[in-house]
Specification:
- Its EC number is 3.5.2.5.
- It is an enzyme of class 3 (hydrolase).
- This protein is an alpha/beta fold.
- The chain is about 25% helix and about 20% strand.
- It contains eleven helices and 17 strands.
- Strands 1, 2, 3, 4, 5, 15, 16 and 17 form an eight-stranded mixed beta sheet that branches. Strands 9-10-11-12-13-14 form a six-stranded parallel beta sheet.
- Helix 4 packs across helix 6.
């Protein structure tokens, strides 16, 4: 048994001084700040003590594309960024996670490599709906689908027919559908492909709006819970608010890159900024922040989607041809803290967006996402005042080619604990062997 002492412990939606008590991998209680009965106490001063973050939207790419990322590098990056749980998307790995056999390959690959805990989403693609019951029985927390070309032939887009077939099965199993919500309305990239504005115009907000409109209609018909991943179009917020007011089971995420960057600042050839849906203008960015303030957007995830630098056309390239995905694993906490403070948000908001609500999405809130007695002692010590510049030397992802490089941020992870064991410290790096576990859920009866 030991304690972590701080003047700022975030628990029960509030901040207070105290000593967080950990025993046998779980949180026991929070003692008053001046309690002296514990034999071992780590005093972290005024550093924040918060729950380990849960990132439910990452592409780890193992097996099959491990040269893009991989479990070892991804989970190190997560631990260094205060993330104690990753939920891996079903695509970019080979095979894609649309069968029990593919899921078992991912579970096997995680053994002895993971610095943090892992879970895995299943996938919905045309022709594979028959596998949804079996994957549900294996404990996936839900299923991801693309409503538009994913860029990978092995993970084809789901049309309305496929969604109608799959959503009742997913609902029956008590799970949720995660949707990449864009519909191809026929716009093409016109003009120089090196100019970001031309790429942006080729994927307008209407693509997201029409996709989400269709999803709302299908949720209304099937009552299948749907989660909108990486919302970029603020024009969808009013429609989503109305659907929620109607009582439809819809949740929404956005990502740091949509909350930090704006299209106006992306220069020609800077393909490290390419993602789909695209980063939009500054007014849209501020409207997304308002969506968080209003509770229409529930959470913030990274959508860490790396690749080998050549696929991003590093050094200046073609926005039409470059791989679409932002590498950001390990950076979300300081990025969000830096930007959220400017807009009047508190650390309790960060914890809600990136720990408690994301744990709930992954059906892991009985284990993670809060500093509550009985939950696993996934804990982060975060110096909210330390200023630093993001550089490749401080990143643990396999390819530190990221649009966030060179940014000055405020806040740094000092230590990360997984089930009570220190798995990362800024001073000592990674003190122990990988001991992360696969945390699939108990299927509904």
């Amino acid at each position: 048994m030991f304690g972590i002492k701080s003047t700022r412990i975030v628990a029960n939606h509030s901040v207070a001084p105290g000593i967080l008590v950990i025993d046998r991998g779980r949180i026991q209680t929070i003692f008053p700040y001046h309690f002296e009965g514990l034999e071992r106490v780590e005093d972290v001063g005024e550093a924040w003590v918060i729950p380990g973050l849960v990132d439910p939207h990452v592409h780890i790419n193992e097996p099959g594309n491990t040269e893009w990322e991989g479990i070892a590098s991804a989970t190190k990056a997560a631990a260094a960024g205060g993330v104690t749980t990753l939920v891996d998307m079903p695509l970019n790995s080979i095979p894609v996670t649309t069968s029990v056999e593919a899921l078992q390959q991912k579970v096997k690959a995680a053994q002895g490599q993971a610095m943090v805990d892992l879970s895995f989403w299943g996938g919905v693609v045309p022709g594979e709906v028959k596998n949804l019951d079996d994957l549900s029985a294996q404990g996936v927390p839900g299923f991801k689908t693309f409503m538009i070309d994913s860029g990978l032939p092995e993970f084809a887009a789901s049309d309305e027919k496929t969604l109608r077939e799959s959503m009742p099965i997913i609902a029956k199993n008590g799970l949720k559908l995660l949707a990449h919500a864009e519909l191809d309305l026929g716009h093409k990239l016109a003009g120089s492909p090196a100019v970001y504005e031309n790429f942006l115009n080729s994927r307008p907000q209407e693509w997201e709006y029409e996709a989400i409109s269709l999803l709302i209609k299908l949720v209304r018909e099937t009552r299948c819970p749907v989660h909108i991943v990486h919302l970029a179009a603020a024009s969808c917020l009013e429609m989503l608010a109305e659907a929620r007011a109607e009582g439809l089971p819809i949740t929404v995420e956005t990502c740091p890159h949509y909350l930090v960057f704006s299209s106006e600042q992306i220069a020609a050839g800077q393909t490290q900024f390419k993602c789909c849906p695209p980063i939009r203008d500054a007014a849209n960015r501020e409207a997304l922040w308002q969506g968080l303030r209003d509770g229409i957007i529930d959470m913030v995830t990274t959508d860490h989607s790396p690749c080998v630098p050549a696929l991003k056309q590093k050094g200046g390239g073609d926005f039409g041809q470059a791989w679409g995905g932002i590498a950001s694993l390990g950076l979300a906490l300081p990025l969000m803290w830096t930007e959220a403070q400017k807009r009047g948000f508190e650390m309790t908001d960060i914890v809600k967006w990136m720990a408690s609500d994301t744990a709930r999405l992954a059906s892991l809130d009985n284990l993670k996402g809060a500093l509550q007695p009985g939950l696993l002692a996934d804990v982060v010590v975060f110096d909210g005042d330390q200023e630093w510049t993001i550089g490749s030397e401080s990143l643990y992802m396999r390819h530190p080619f990221t649009p966030f490089e060179g940014m000055k941020v405020k806040g740094r992870v000092l230590a990360t604990y997984l089930s009570g064991e220190k798995v990362y410290s800024l001073q000592d790096g990674f003190p122990g062997a990988p001991n992360g576990k696969v945390r699939l859920i108990a299927p509904a009866k």
